[in-house]
Every structure is written in C-alpha cells, then in structure tokens.
C-alpha cells in the first residue's frame, strides 16, 4: 500500500511539472506578439506622417510651396547672373562707352535722377527751411537737388552745358578699378567712383589769380575790374569753351549778363586747391604765349572735342 501511495505522488509531481512547462511555453510563445506590438507603438509617428501626406488638402500647398521655392531660387540665380553679366556689358568699356547715350545709361541707372534729396538732414534740418550751399549762388534756381540732378537737369546747367553721363563716366573694370594691375586691364581707369578727378577740376578748380597777374583772388580784385570778366576777355582768349560738354554760346550769353556765371566754374565753386591747366587755343590777335603757359596743349582732350566723341 505505501509503495502504491508513493507512485501516486510521483505522478502528481510529474503532472504539476508538465503544467508548469506548458504555462511557461505559453507565455514564452506570447512574448513575440508583445514585442511586435511594442514595435508597432513606436511606429505610429511615421505612419501618421505618411497617412497625412496623401490627403488632397495637404498635397497641393506642398507642391505649390516647392514650385514657388524653386522659382524664387531660379529667379534669384537669374538675377545674380544678369547683374554680373550687366556689369561686364561692353557698354561699360572702351570703345562702346564712347558712343553710349544718356538713354542707354539710364535704362539701368535711372535712379540717379529719380532719387531726390532727403526731406531732412540726419541732423534734423528741414529741406524746406534750409539752404544748401549751392542755393546761395545767384546762378542757382529752385529747390535742393541731388548731385546728378544738378549736373544733368538743373535749369542753369541746361543753359551753359551739354553734360551727359559719359562726360564724367568713362567705364570701369569691376575686377580692378585701376589700370596697370594686369596686362589686360583697361587703360586710363581711375579709382573712386570711376570718375577722373581732372574732369571735375575743369569746373571746380582754384581761381588762378597768380598766373593772371591779378593782385588777389577774384573776391578781392573783382571790383577793380567792375566785377566783369568780359572787360578783359572780350578780346583775350576769345576762342574758348569749344568742347562737347559745354554750350559755348550759352556761356557767353550768361557771362555777359552776370559774371558770376563765369566765376562759378573758374574758382567760385572750387573743390580743389589747384587750377585746371586749360588748353591754350589760338585766337585772332593772340598775344605771345607767356612762360607759365608754354607747355600747355593747344587743343582739348580728344574725347571732349566737339567731333571727338563721334565714331
């Protein structure tokens, strides 16, 4: 009887072991689905993005944005390319610039005339209640104007000059801006704003009272000559202003009416401490050339001759 009871308990233990093994196997086999479920939980953000993308409402703006961005990039690239190409346009170099008209230049540079002076200076001075230095001159009329406006469109300049863009601007090399830095650079380039200071000096030089034999500057000696330049120059150096950027007849007319018109360009608006050595053109009844003028040319620079700038 005892031996039979022992065998029964052994059978119970074996049965329990089988049940435990079965349960262990069951839970172990369910771990894989759980892991898969866990992986699927981490996946939703990706799935959500993908699911949202195909909707019709979201797709159209995305394409439009992409196209707009592409167009912007393309336009920017094209603009940059056009700007670089424009800088190296032949019109900015010799010889094409010699035949460029104001209309040609203003196609791209119209802003030099369209931009007006400030209504108030940085210090707060109002334009309408303040006179600029040039507004104090007897020869100036009207409100304040910019540098380019005064040289191209002011009433007085239109009477006495035929200024054009190429009178001052003779082209430049965007790479060097000065001649001689390489064997292939353009000759005759000048630094700073691409304008030769000698061109400015022609109308903004010092009054040369020393070489003229006057006792002092025109402000001091003008009264001796009745403040009349033509008192002497009606018969001296009468072949004058024969250049393409001046209106010789207009200058004579304005000078006869008011000598300030002469003095304006011959010392009255002096920006420099030196005088421009004007060519000494021969004139009827010319006196012998004085020593101080013996080395001066007898003709203006070729590009300023009335026929010189024409092809």
Describe this structure in words.
The structure is a single chain. The protein has about 300 residues and is an all-alpha fold. Helix content is about 45%, strand content about 0%. The chain has helices at about 1-40, 45-50, 55-85, 100-110, 110-115, 145-150, 155-160, 165-170, 195-205, 220, 230-235, 250-255, 260-270. It is elongated. The chain starts with a helix and ends in a 43-residue tail after the last helix. The model is unreliable at about 30-60 (pLDDT under 50).
Number of helices: 13
Please compute the radius of gyration using only Cα atoms: 44 Å
Distance between the termini: 140 Å
What is the number of strand segments? 0
Largest sheet: none
Q: What structural class should be given to the helix and strand makeup?
A: mainly alpha
User: Which parts are unreliable, with pLDDT below 50 for 5 consecutive residues or more?
Assistant: 29-61
Overall body shape: elongated
Percentage beta strand: under 5%
State the helicity in percent bands. 40-55%
Q: What is the element string, with H for helices and E for strands?
A: HHHHHHHHHHHHH
- Mean pLDDT rating: 80
Could you name the key traits of this structure?
single chain, 311 residues, mainly alpha, 13 helices, 0% strand, elongated, Multihaem_cyt_sf
Question: Could you write a compact summary of the structure shown?
Answer:
The chain is an all-alpha fold and about 300 residues long. The chain contains 13 helices and no strands. Keywords: Membrane, Transmembrane, Transmembrane helix.
């Amino acid at each position: 009887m005892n031996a039979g009871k022992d065998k029964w308990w052994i059978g119970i233990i074996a049965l329990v072991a089988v049940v435990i093994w079965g349960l262990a196997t069951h839970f172990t086999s369910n771990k894989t689905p759980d892991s898969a479920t866990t992986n699927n939980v981490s996946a939703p953000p990706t799935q959500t993005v993908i699911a949202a993308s195909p909707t019709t409402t979201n797709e159209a703006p995305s394409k439009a944005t992409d196209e707009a961005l592409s167009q912007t990039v393309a336009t920017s690239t094209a603009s940059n390319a056009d700007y670089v190409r424009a800088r190296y346009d032949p019109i900015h170099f010799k010889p094409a610039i010699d035949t460029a008209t104001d209309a040609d230049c203003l196609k791209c540079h119209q802003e030099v005339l369209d931009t007006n002076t400030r209504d108030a200076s940085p210090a707060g001075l109002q334009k309408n209640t303040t006179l600029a230095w040039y507004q104090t001159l007897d020869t100036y009329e009207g409100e304040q104007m910019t540098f380019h406006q005064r040289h191209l469109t002011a009433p007085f300049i239109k009477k006495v000059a035929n200024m054009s863009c190429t009178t001052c601007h003779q082209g430049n090399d965007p790479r060097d801006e000065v001649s001689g830095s390489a064997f292939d650079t353009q000759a005759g380039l000048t630094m700073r704003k691409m304008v030769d200071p000698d061109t400015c000096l022609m109308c903004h030089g010092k009054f040369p009272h020393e070489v003229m034999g006057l006792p002092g500057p025109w402000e001091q000696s003008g009264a001796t000559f009745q403040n009349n330049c033509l008192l002497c120059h009606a018969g001296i150096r009468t072949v004058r202003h024969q250049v393409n950027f001046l209106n010789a007849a207009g200058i004579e007319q304005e000078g006869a009416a008011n000598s300030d018109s002469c003095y304006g360009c011959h010392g009255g608006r002096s920006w420099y401490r030196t005088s421009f050595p004007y060519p000494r053109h021969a004139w009827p009844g010319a006196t012998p050339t004085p020593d101080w003028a013996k080395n001066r040319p007898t003709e203006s620079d070729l590009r300023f001759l009335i026929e010189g700038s024409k092809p």
